[in-house]
Design a protein that fits this description.
alpha/beta, Rossmann fold, 4-stranded mixed β-sheet, 7 helices, 4 strands, globular
């Protein structure tokens, strides 16, 4: 496997980026986590589909709108845990005294409709360990 990085600095770069990806003959897509890319998730999923690129994402929101697969920290759980930190700080805790925590809940989602459209057979063992299958 050879990684090929394609830079996207703004939403205006997405069309060019997918053109570059096609020119490089990429066989899959893995967008790195980014607020800008998250906000452009529908365009990214649509461009991936148009280019017949299976995509692996870091959050469920991509798979819910047609992305192939996502594996990452459960964002709802992270938000709840962040709220607990804010509560402690508002009650007088010093932020520097609070421990750094890593995510503890992760989720795997697979969009079977997208897999079928791409001609991908998802192994049964992967389906069995998925937290959610979207048909």
């Amino acid at each position: 496997m050879q990684l090929q990085f394609v830079e996207v600095r703004s939403p205006d770069d997405l069309a060019r980026a997918f053109s570059d990806i096609a020119r490089l003959r990429a066989e899959a897509l893995f967008p790195l986590p980014s607020t800008m890319l998250f906000s452009e998730r529908q365009r990214i999923v649509d461009l991936a589909a148009a280019n017949k690129l299976p995509g692996m994402y870091n959050s469920r929101e991509f798979v819910e709108i047609g992305g192939l697969i996502a594996y990452g920290a459960n964002l709802a759980d992270l938000s709840r845990r962040s709220a607990a930190y804010v509560d402690k700080i508002l009650k007088g805790a010093k932020p520097a005294d609070l421990p750094v925590e890593q995510p503890t809940k992760f989720e795997l989602l697979i969009n079977m409709k997208t897999a079928k459209a791409l001609g991908i057979t998802v192994p049964l063992v992967l389906q069995q360990v998925a937290n959610e299958i979207i048909d």
